[in-house]
Design a protein that fits this description.
alpha+beta; Nuclear Transport Factor 2, Chain: A; three-stranded antiparallel beta sheet; two-stranded antiparallel sheet; about 25% helix; elongated
Amino acid sequence: MAISRADVITQTAKKSEVYSDFTNNFIKHPITGELVVVKNEDSVKQAFKNLILTNIFERPFNQFFGSNLRKTLFEPYSPFVIEDITRYIQLAAQQFEKRITILNISITDNSDKNGYSINIVFSIINNPEPVSLNLFVKRVR
């Protein structure tokens, strides 16, 4: 039995969808009118970013969800503050985000912008490739 051209074209490997979530701003798709969905790595990155930027006691029915990252933003820059930020991110990931394993956290001080640039490299359980999440957190007055 001969393989036709259509069989060769349609046999592409479809990447399996493991994780999915709605976008944070609930944007509607312009054509279908349905909510836009983020999938796989983007979904995990969005969930982890939400976790890091949520303060403890900020959610009424889940008070211990989140990290105390914002607490460190008003402290003067020192190596101890960098250690605190790293520890808060690692604790939040260990307690609430079981889908990831943190490989590296690098934090740089941006004193001229009153904040910190945070680069988190992690791997997702079902995907061995490292994923990078870049954040810039600053204090707001």
